[in-house]
């Protein structure tokens, strides 16, 4: 809401002083009748029926003095108008905004109910992960909690290619899906898998922002983002070459209320000086 522009008391006092000291001293008329008739007579000629009145003696009747006084009064009036405009257009809005921003700071928002949530993990082995109801993620080759498992994105990734996992870098032995889904070994995958993995983890992050989903901490790490940028930028190998060895991971699951506020919103608010 825009601040109300109430007339400052200082401006009211200045206007009263100006009226009392200046306008009260003005003559009842700037030009006397003789001067008026003289102007008409000089420019238009004589008019019938107009009789020049008698000269009146007045301390304001001297044309040069009146002209000088009038110029001074006009100049003073212009100064008053300019100062008033300057105050209302520039200075007063800044003053009102400053008072609104700093005099009464906005109340802090109530703490998130998830702020004290204990980060849930899937242990450090496949057996421990299963006992904790965790799911194996083919996209990240990780054991994820139900909150950090994104089935829609994982299924889309699996449908993109007929992915194959290999026991060795020569690609001579193909692991069955049962072995892969056991989530207890490391595997060799083609460069195409690595490239597409980066694309889909970025999709996962974007979806998490829009839908406020939880994310595993290893995907949140900037090192992973930087690594994927290099993969996409450099294109070092052909897609079919086996240049990637993937290891099973057990990351921490971070709810949106924790990673969103702690790692993005709070630092941004601090940088901008927002309470």
What does this structure look like?
This protein is mostly helical. It has two domains: 9-48 and 60-102; 126-272, no CATH class. The chain has helices spanning 9-21, 33-44, 63-103, 126-131, 151-160, 177-181, 191-211, 217-220, 222-234, 256-272, and strands at residues 135-137, 142-144, 187-189, 215-216, 244-246, 253-254. A hairpin with a 4-residue loop joins strand 1 and strand 2 (142-144). Helix 7 (191-211) packs across helix 9 (222-234). Residues 1-5, 28-61 and 92-118 have low confidence and may be disordered.
Put the structure in a nutshell.
Helix content is 52%, strand content 6%.
Give the SSE map.
Blueprint: H1 9-21, H2 33-44, H3 63-103, H4 126-131, E1 135-137, E2 142-144, H5 151-160, H6 177-181, E3 187-189, H7 191-211, E4 215-216, H8 217-220, H9 222-234, E5 244-246, E6 253-254, H10 256-272
Antiparallel strand pairs: 1-2, 3-5, 4-6
InterPro entries: Phomopsin_biosynth_assoc (IPR053008)
Keywords: Membrane, Transmembrane, Transmembrane helix
Transmembrane segments: 72-94
> Which structural class is indicated by helix and strand composition?
mainly alpha
Bin the helical content: 40-55%
Q: How many separate helices?
A: 10
Radius of gyration: 41 Å
Q: Strands across the major sheet, in which order?
A: 1-2
């Amino acid at each position: 809401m825009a601040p109300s522009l109430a007339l400052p008391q200082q401006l009211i006092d200045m206007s009263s002083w100006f009226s009392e000291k200046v306008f009260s001293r003005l003559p009842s008329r700037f030009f006397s009748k003789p001067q008026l008739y003289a102007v008409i007579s000089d420019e238009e000629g004589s008019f019938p029926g107009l009789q020049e009145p008698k000269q009146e003696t007045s301390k304001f009747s001297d044309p040069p003095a009146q002209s000088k006084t009038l110029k001074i009064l006009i100049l003073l009036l212009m100064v008053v108008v300019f100062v008033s405009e300057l105050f209302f257009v520039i200075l007063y809005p800044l003053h009102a905004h400053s008072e609104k921003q700093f005099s009464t700071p906005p109340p802090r928002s109530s703490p998130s109910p998830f702020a004290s949530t204990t980060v849930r993990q899937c242990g450090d082995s496949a057996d421990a992960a299963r006992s904790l109801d965790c799911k194996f993620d083919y996209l990240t080759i990780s054991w994820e909690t139900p909150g950090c498992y994104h089935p829609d994105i994982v299924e889309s990734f699996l449908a993109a290619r007929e992915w194959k996992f290999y026991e060795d870098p020569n690609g001579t032995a193909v692991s069955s899906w049962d072995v892969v889904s056991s989530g207890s070994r490391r595997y060799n995958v083609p460069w195409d898998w690595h490239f597409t993995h980066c694309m889909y983890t970025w999709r996962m992050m974007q979806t998490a922002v829009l839908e406020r989903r939880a994310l595993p901490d290893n995907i949140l790490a900037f090192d992973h983002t930087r690594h994927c940028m290099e993969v996409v930028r450099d294109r070092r190998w052909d897609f079919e070459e086996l240049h990637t060895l993937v290891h099973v991971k057990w990351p921490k699951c971070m709810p949106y209320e924790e990673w969103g506020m702690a790692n993005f919103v709070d630092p941004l608010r601090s940088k901008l000086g927002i309470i």
